[in-house]
Design brief:
Blueprint (H helix, E strand, L loop, with lengths): L3 E5 L9 E6 L6 E2 L4 E7 L3 E5 L4 E6 L6 E2 L4 E7 L18 H9 L18 H9 L30 H16 L2 E9 L1 H16 L6 H15 L5 E3 L4 E3 L5 E3 L1 E2 L5 E2 L2 E2 L7 H16 L13 E4 L20 E5 L3 E9 L2 E17 L5 H16 L12
Parallel strand pairs: 12-16, 16-17
Antiparallel strand pairs: 1-8, 2-4, 2-7, 3-6, 4-5, 6-8, 9-19, 10-11, 12-15, 13-14, 17-19, 18-19
Length: about 400
C-alpha cells in the first residue's frame, strides 16, 4: 500500500479569505500528478489546486463553500507511485479543468474531439474558443411550434447566486465605507500632449508586441506623483501613517458580470512607460482569461479606476481599496471647446479633456494633500514631453 500525501491550501494574502468553489474529484477517484483536484475562490482570483502526486482521493476535509486558511489540509491522497506522464493516456474528459468542461458543455462539444495545446496535450479554454470560432457545431434554439398560442403565464423572476468574488467585493466595499470617511476632489486634465505622444510612439510599441494605452500614462504620472507625495502611498494605522517604500499601483479591471479584479504593477516607480505598458498588457489579458496568479493581485499601495472606458464622465466617490488611503478615478476622454492661455494671451481651442478624481481616506489625508497630489498628476499629463528618452522609449 502506498503512502499518504496531504493536499494543502496555498499561501494567501493576509486578510483575504478563500472558499472551496468546487471539487473536480470525488472520494475514491484516481488522480494523476498535476491533475486539477479542486478550485479555490477568493475575492481576487480563482486558483486551481492540482494533485501533488498520483494516487487515489481517500478523504475530503473541506466541502464545497467551506472557508479555508493558508496551508490548511484540504484532502488526502493514497499514493500509487504512477508516473506523472500517465495522465496523457486517460480517456474522455477526465483531464479537463472545470472551466473547460463548462465551455464544452455550453457548446455541445464531445470530449476527445478537440486537440489540446496545453501541458501534456491538455485542452485549454483557448482551444475551445478557437474551435467554436472556426465554425464548430453549437446547439441551436428549438423552433416554436407553428401557430403556438403565446403563453399568458407571468414571467418568473430569476435569482442569480452570488459568486464568492461578488460576496467578497461586497463585504470589502461595505467595510471600507464603514471604516474610512470618503472625500473626493475633482480636477480636469488636458490630454492633448499625451495623445500626441501616443500617436507618435504607439506603432513602435506595437512592433515590440505591446499596446500603448492611456492607462499606462496615468500609471506613470501617478508613480511620479506618489514619489513626490509619499503620504498618498500609505496605510492608515491607529497610531501612525505607514509610508510604503515601493509604489505598487493596482488597476481596476472589469470582468463583465463577474465583477472586477485589481491586478497590481509592482515597483512602478522604477519602470519606464514601455515597461509599464508591457506589465499592464500581461495583467489585463491574464485577468480576463482567468489566469492571474495570487502574486499578481497582492501588495497594492494605490489604485486607479479607469471607469471612463465604459463611457462614464465622472464617478464619485469611488470606494477606496483598503488598506490604501486613496484611489484615482479617470473619466471618459472628450473633445471639448476650452479657453487656452498662452502667457497673457487667451484663445479658444478644441482640446482632449477628461475629469480626474481622487477619493481619499480623510483620516489619513486632508484636502491640501489630495489637491497637491492630483495637481502633480494633472501637470505631468498636460506637460508630457514628446521625446522623453529612457523614461518611455522602448
Amino acid at each position: 500500500m502506498g503512502s499518504i500525501a496531504d493536499v494543502v491550501a496555498p499561501p494567501n494574502e493576509e486578510g483575504t479569505r478563500a472558499t472551496v468553489l468546487r471539487w473536480c474529484k470525488r472520494v475514491g477517484d484516481s488522480v494523476f500528478k498535476d491533475e486539477p483536484l479542486l478550485e479555490l475562490e477568493t475575492d481576487k482570483v480563482t486558483v486551481e489546486i492540482p494533485a501533488p502526486e498520483s494516487g487515489t482521493l481517500i478523504e475530503v476535509l473541506k466541502p464545497e463553500n467551506a472557508e479555508v486558511s493558508p496551508d490548511e489540509v484540504l484532502a488526502r491522497l493514497q499514493l500509487s507511485g504512477e508516473s506523472p506522464r500517465a495522465a496523457a493516456a486517460k480517456p474522455g474528459d477526465e483531464r479537463l479543468s472545470p472551466s473547460v468542461r463548462r465551455l464544452m458543455r455550453e457548446h455541445a462539444i464531445a470530449p476527445g474531439t478537440i486537440g489540446g495545446t496545453g501541458r501534456d496535450g491538455r485542452v485549454t479554454a483557448e482551444d475551445v474558443t478557437r474551435h467554436v470560432a472556426a465554425g464548430a457545431q453549437t446547439p441551436q434554439p428549438r423552433a416554436a411550434a407553428p401557430h403556438a398560442a403565446p403563453s399568458r403565464a407571468a414571467t418568473p423572476r430569476t435569482k442569480i447566486a452570488h459568486s464568492a468574488v461578488r460576496r467578497r467585493v461586497a463585504e470589502h466595499m461595505v467595510r471600507s465605507l464603514a471604516e474610512a470617511p470618503h472625500v473626493t476632489t475633482l480636477f480636469e486634465a488636458d490630454l492633448t500632449q499625451v495623445l500626441k505622444h501616443r500617436a507618435m510612439h504607439a506603432p513602435k510599441y506595437e512592433s515590440r508586441g505591446t499596446r500603448l494605452t492611456l492607462t499606462a500614462y496615468f500609471i506613470r504620472a501617478c508613480a511620479e506623483g506618489l514619489r513626490a507625495h509619499p503620504q498618498v502611498n500609505a496605510t492608515f494605522l491607529e497610531d501612525a501613517l505607514e509610508l510604503h517604500g515601493d509604489i505598487n499601483i493596482g488597476v481596476g479591471t472589469a470582468l463583465g458580470d463577474q465583477g472586477l479584479i485589481v491586478p497590481v504593477i509592482h515597483g512602478a516607480q522604477n519602470l519606464s512607460l514601455f515597461e509599464i505598458a508591457q506589465h499592464l498588457n500581461r495583467l489585463v489579458d491574464a485577468a480576463r482569461a482567468g489566469r492571474l496568479s495570487p502574486a499578481d493581485v497582492r501588495g497594492g499601495t494605490f489604485t486607479i479606476s479607469n471607469h471612463g472606458v465604459g463611457g462614464s464622465l465622472l464617478a464619485a466617490p469611488i470606494v477606496i481599496n483598503q488598506p490604501q488611503v486613496a484611489i484615482l478615478g479617470v473619466g471618459k476622454v472628450e473633445r471639448r471647446v476650452c479657453v487656452v492661455q498662452t502667457g497673457d494671451e487667451e484663445s479658444i481651442a478644441v482640446r482632449s479633456m477628461c475629469y480626474v478624481t481622487l477619493t481619499i481616506d480623510h483620516r489619513a489625508l486632508d484636502a491640501f494633500q489630495a489637491n497637491s497630489f492630483l495637481k502633480s498628476v494633472v501637470t505631468a499629463l498636460e506637460q508630457w514631453p514628446q521625446a522623453e528618452g529612457l523614461r518611455s522609449a522602448p
